[in-house]
């Protein structure tokens, strides 16, 4: 079971993920700084290719980071033995893959998938039927993966992930296959899981899921560009090395890719490198809307 009860379920600093590619290397994560508190739903958003799935698969211990630090319940992922990693993956860190069948077992019917996860986490088996019912899957409890629709598989993968409230639930686009009604069922179940004390993290492009989150981390080019608490203004993230990512519309003000950094009484102004005062930017654009 995850320990370090007072800290976040997971935290990363300067997290880097590099994939080999035909042209050399793809730097999918370029120094992610983030923490994932228990009891909260964190949505990870960003354009295609910004690194959402890479972050989630490292966070869920499906892949190793290439650099930087990841702590799960206060333990550095790099120092975990193979056995400790398997233990965490099995009991404490639940994973809903982008393709839900990748998180499900072929040989089991729906009810058995959830019961198997419940047994591993020493959860009450009676909860499995209630969970399937809440997710609208009672009538499909005896069906195997290939007999389920994409949306049913997705709901089933979520059921198996949340049963027994593991310390960390990581889900890659858990509502992608769902209509409004079934999406609400999944989001309600993720909320219930967070209320039980789990840290729930999901990548999404879905406005319904973003609206349901307590906080939203927006990625661009493999770093956290902004972080927003529900209903609050998004704040640009300044990482531990002092870097901050400008919104795309501000980049046009710095064609040379250089800025003067001027501290004044109110904060910091960035001026084009030739010393001219920066042209004014409409307030909405400055806030990245
Ligand atoms: N297994 C892999 N091998 C090589 N490159 C990869 C691999 N997985 C991801 N990438 C590359 O890493 C970068 C980030 O990909 P990632 O899938 O994390 O982005 P994403 O934000 O989840 O995108 P999407 O919204 O399209 O799912 C992309 O350039 C992608 O091509």
TrEMBL record:
Q: Keyword Iron-sulfur: yes or no? A: no
ABC transporter domain boundaries: 13-246
Q: Name one GO molecular function term.
A: transmembrane transporter activity
What keywords is this UniProt entry annotated with? ATP-binding, Nucleotide-binding
Mention any one GO cellular component term assigned to this protein in its UniProt record: plasma membrane
Transmembrane residue ranges:
none
Keyword ATP-binding belongs to the record? yes
What protein is this chain from?
ATP-binding cassette domain-containing protein
Q: Which organism is it from?
A: Pengzhenrongella frigida
């Amino acid at each position: 079971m995850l320990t370090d009860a007072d800290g976040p379920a997971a935290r990363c600093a300067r997290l880097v993920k590099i994939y080999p590619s035909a042209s050399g290397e793809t730097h999918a994560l370029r120094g992610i700084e983030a923490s994932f508190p228990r009891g909260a739903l964190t949505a990870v958003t960003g354009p295609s290719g910004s690194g959402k799935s890479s972050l989630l698969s490292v966070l869920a211990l499906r892949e190793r980071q290439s650099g930087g630090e990841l702590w799960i319940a206060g333990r550095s992922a790099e120092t975990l033995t193979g056995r400790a990693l398997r233990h965490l993956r099995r009991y404490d860190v639940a994973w809903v893959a982008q393709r839900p069948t990748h998180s499900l077992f072929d040989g089991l019917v729906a009810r058995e998938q959830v019961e198997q996860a419940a047994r591993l986490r020493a959860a009450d088996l009676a909860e499995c039927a209630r969970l399937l019912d809440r997710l609208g899957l009672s009538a499909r409890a005896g069906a195997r993966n290939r007999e389920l629709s994409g949306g049913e598989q997705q709901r089933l993968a979520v059921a198996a992930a949340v049963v027994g409230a593991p310390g960390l639930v990581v889900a890659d686009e858990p509502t992608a296959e769902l209509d409004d009604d079934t999406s609400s069922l999944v989001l309600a179940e993720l909320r219930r899981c967070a209320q039980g004390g789990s840290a729930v993290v999901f990548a999404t492009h879905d406005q319904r899921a973003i609206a349901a989150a307590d906080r939203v981390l927006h990625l661009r080019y493999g770093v956290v560009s902004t972080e927003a608490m529900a209903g609050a203004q998004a704040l640009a993230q300044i990482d531990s090395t002092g870097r901050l990512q400008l919104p795309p519309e501000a980049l046009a003000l710095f064609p040379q890719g250089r800025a003067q950094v001027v501290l004044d009484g109110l904060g910091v102004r960035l001026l084009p490198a030739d010393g001219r005062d920066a042209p004014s930017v409409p307030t909405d654009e400055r806030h990245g809307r």
